[in-house]
Amino acid sequence: MKRILLFAAALSLSLAALAQQALGPGTGLVSPEINPDNSVTFRYHNPKAKVVQVTGDFLPTLPVEIDLGERKIMYNAPGVADLSEGPGGVWTYTSAPLSGELYSYSFLVDGKKVMDPSNVHQNRDIATWTNIFTLSARPGDPGWYYEVHNVPHGNVAHVWYDSPTLSSQRRMTVYTPAGYDSGNQHYPVLYLLHGSGGDEDAWSDLGRTAQIMDNLIAEGKAKPMIVVMPNGVWFNQAAPGAAVNNFQPTMQNSRSQSTQEIEDSFPDVMNYIEKHYRVAKGYANTAVAGLSMGGRQSCMLSLHYPDVFGYVGLFSGVGLVEGNEQAFAKVFAYKPHLYWIGCGKEDGVMVNSKKLKEWCDFQGFPVTLYESEGGHIWRNWRTYLTIFAQELFKDAPQKAQRPIRFSNTTEEFE
Amino acid sequence: MKRILLFAAALSLSLAALAQQALGPGTGLVSPEINPDNSVTFRYHNPKAKVVQVTGDFLPTLPVEIDLGERKIMYNAPGVADLSEGPGGVWTYTSAPLSGELYSYSFLVDGKKVMDPSNVHQNRDIATWTNIFTLSARPGDPGWYYEVHNVPHGNVAHVWYDSPTLSSQRRMTVYTPAGYDSGNQHYPVLYLLHGSGGDEDAWSDLGRTAQIMDNLIAEGKAKPMIVVMPNGVWFNQAAPGAAVNNFQPTMQNSRSQSTQEIEDSFPDVMNYIEKHYRVAKGYANTAVAGLSMGGRQSCMLSLHYPDVFGYVGLFSGVGLVEGNEQAFAKVFAYKPHLYWIGCGKEDGVMVNSKKLKEWCDFQGFPVTLYESEGGHIWRNWRTYLTIFAQELFKDAPQKAQRPIRFSNTTEEFE
Q1: Superfamily of domain A24-144
Q2: Is A181 on the interface with B (CB under 8 A)?
Q3: Cβ–Cβ of A197/B23 closer than 8 Å?
Q4: Cα-based torsion angle of the residue sequence A39, A44, A47, A49 in order, rounded to the nearest 10 degrees
């Protein structure tokens, strides 16, 4: 009993003391709250605000014109909704019922962005932080795969390796599936590349790679595999804050966009992985995929090393046909198990994705084009990974839609 | 040339497309900016705000009285400073020159917390997000150890293990030093425990464990070691969002504060580590330390397993003397290499730290008490780790200040 009393005293002390640093008074609000009909209620306390809004990808997008100087393009900006002020300066908004997804949002208080202080879940996308929440409307919908379920979990490691080609230590993120630690099995490998401005943390954080793989593997929908997420910017060693002199995300310039350095140094990544992990090597056990810039890099890697990657995924990325016709022919001479393109109908690079698909069709190179709704957004990339991962490391190669033939006539695809 | 043109088109497209999701217009401001004299300038754009302030631990603290009902206590709240409005609605504040440290801050816009949109570096402490920056005023000051330098880097893995005692999968964070991957050496292990409300990510994120260890090891000031950071809340599998049904941080109730379940299940943690890592086992190679609740747990673990931990660190944690006199005697009968207490002079638990030190002195049990400035804050815990880690796994046991003797007379220390 004395011990318990001592406890209580120590506890109240430490609670008060902790309040200095961390807990504060708490907001006393639940936000976001997922309602039984899958609508979501947002709450924010601010008696002085004149206008409080929420903006996020759960709202219908707004078409916006962007002036690029020589031309104007349309894009779909995240929607905005007004919260209503209630008693005590608490503002609320309830959405329409939502489908199962991972959603990003933030508040706008008199026009300025404010994070939701009642929601500890935030993600950084390049230089932008937003609050996030997942909603699992029905088992098996996309949101369900991004949530943590009571299934065996794989591990996620942030690993430094030597790149002799780039003369630097570099950091990558490695997912090993549940059971890896306790067994002797060798596993196939998916190399998964981020987009421009991203880093080696992008796929594991915003991309929910570990959750997607854990859930797909537990359901028997994907084979257990290692997923390797390197940093795809050749002049960055690591994510902002994890490397010397790398404090802000940088959009890549055209030099890095060219991916040449990433192509040349990619054997350094694979050598490290094949040396330090139990890897099932070879064409049938090696995949590469990436989003946006990483999609382009995946394409270039497949062209550069046509006998290495039996599975290739281009997520909102484009492959350049012109000048690479011979290289593409070599890629398809190896009969890849899967050459897969995913792109959103509203994505600016859809035109390029379609061109690649059409050219490959014309050549008789079997390529899958998956067209989703929406634009150049993470929601699509998570979906593409979920779909693509299920197709990996199956035994049979993808069937050619028609016999492979190669033509030099490529002008209509420039 | 054609290829380059295609590139430029694809790049501008992808830049515009990316703007949908991530980059936005950018703030166009540098904040925080570290000036040559180590003062720091904060900038924030908001033409509509009436008052913009910055609050953070770089400012002198403000004494505040907290009413706990039966009694009132004083604590030192983070200071607040006003920004001045300049042209175009840009508010600025420049601090006094600062010492080398990792600092946390956020803005208050008309009294409501707002993150600094120009600074991508944020950390979560339990339920509170703040912006952070590190400042290295002089080589070797604390801030220097928390920054990333051009030294060999260790890896950080988020690892799931089975706890038969708690009948669950649980997650921990494991730091392995540079060179671990490429060699055959066996390494000593520091088990490092977080505080109430924290989780297995706290030490690696806000605690800067990897940076501290990388830098100390590179300087030869600490021995290469494995650092294991388990989740110290027995009813949580993992950090918020990493486990099923664990979306918000929870302050522990007295039941978990009792640490009994953590003591009982600790062999599950050690068994996993000793099975899956190259561990130099035994008393002289095994340390435990923790902050606040984790300090208490470290003390209890040392009492529960007196022959296991040759090095013990209590950071702003308290050990309970009463009822544990015999257990403490047993701990010191093994002649621990180091039994170390670190506490801030303004910390509410200093009284307990001093009592433990005095009682141990009285018994002739050699205990080190390191008194720092400040309270129950991360700044101190990072410092304690930096100091404590340098003392670990040296050959000679700490010398007793006087011959060990045991007394049952403990009333003055209740």
Answers
A1: Immunoglobulins (2.60.40.10)
A2: yes
A3: yes
A4: -90
